[in-house]
Specification:
Two copies of one chain form a homodimer.
Chain A lengths: L1 H10 L1 E3 L3 E3 L1 H5 L1 E2 L1 H14 L7 E5 L3 H9 L7 E4 L11 E8 L4 E8 L8 E9 L3 H13 L2 E11 L4 H7 L4 E9 L6 E2 L2
Parallel strand pairs in A: 4-5, 4-8, 8-9, 9-10
Antiparallel strand pairs in A: 1-2, 6-7, 10-11
Helix pairs in contact in A: 3-4
Chain lengths: 191, 191
């Protein structure tokens, strides 16, 4: 997706030749016009699929998933909680996820009320790198019996093992910008 | 806002005569069609104001703020982080917030890159009850020198002190559903 790649080239900060920080438009300040173009592109790539629900994970996936849902007939968005409040229903699906950007393990949770075996789910997230968050979501969805119709990612880094782990599960994965290398602070996209 | 009140009546769960749980459409599963109506209503109520940015706070404000921004010419959304990652810029505005639903104090943060004295900010959040989260956002914005053009809240509970604290700051506050009482598990809206 050219618009997204251009935005990454002009706005992302690279550190340590492997970390790409996109707080400027994706993870802290949110570029809503760009998110609409991202939503349209996910619809184009998953147009053949019947989708009844979009599932994502706290925090950065929520805005992208919500804008994207508008292009899928306003299907409900459900986000897995990393920091459940005291008011949360106790009857939940849960899975462990390790966050490298926070160097911490989380228990992520989705209430059993919001996933059923009848759901056909599009998973949306901002990043695919190690794949840990996506495998956690995969586990929650497998517990619920819902069907995973596809996985839509905004930015994928090919030099970590995420794609391999997702493809091993037989999932249809679409990433809008695929980064092969961040060596020397340069973003090299996969052709 | 009648559509919202109807949704609260049919879908909210009341506990302890003071806690209203709206995970079904606002805090865990997200009703995107309703969020669009909420966004339109905020635009109607703040139509006289010039807005350059929408500011909210992790987690439940993010989706509402993002959908609402579409009705304000796609202005950027910035969310205060409760759980900053290791990659976050260290040059931040910060404030303490106490969360009653998590019984925990947080340090909330916004990068100085994303708030300037030229910004005219609409604050959006899901709930106003004790007012702690809003006072934290007020502090971040005061530190930045940005102007607060208004505060838009989805659900306000009048039997806690939030409104008083916000109005003492001289802010223009608009709440789309105002709840006077949850006694006996019944939702009584302010007329």
């Amino acid at each position: 997706m050219q618009l997204l790649k251009d935005k990454i080239r002009t706005s992302a900060k690279i550190t340590d030749n492997r970390i790409i920080q996109v707080d400027n438009f994706l993870n802290h300040q949110l570029d809503i016009a760009l998110f609409n173009e991202i939503g349209k592109e996910f619809k184009r790539r998953f147009s053949a699929k019947e989708i009844t629900k979009i599932v994502t994970i706290e925090t950065s996936g929520i805005a992208i998933a919500s804008i994207t849902a508008q292009y899928f007939n306003n299907v409900p968005v459900v986000f897995a909680k990393k920091h459940a409040g005291l008011n949360m229903n106790k009857d939940v699906y849960e899975a462990k996820v390790f966050s490298y950007t926070k160097n911490q393990e989380y228990l992520i949770k989705i209430s059993k009320d919001y996933l059923t075996p009848n759901d056909k789910v599009l998973i949306i997230d901002d990043f695919l790198a190690s794949g840990s968050a996506l495998l956690g979501l995969y586990s929650l969805l497998a517990q619920s019996g819902a069907e995973i119709a596809g996985v839509g990612i905004v930015i994928e880094k090919t030099f970590q093992e995420g794609r391999k782990l997702i493809e091993e599960k037989g999932l249809h994965l679409e990433s809008l910008a695929i980064i092969d290398s961040l060596q020397d602070g340069q973003v090299i996209f996969k052709e």
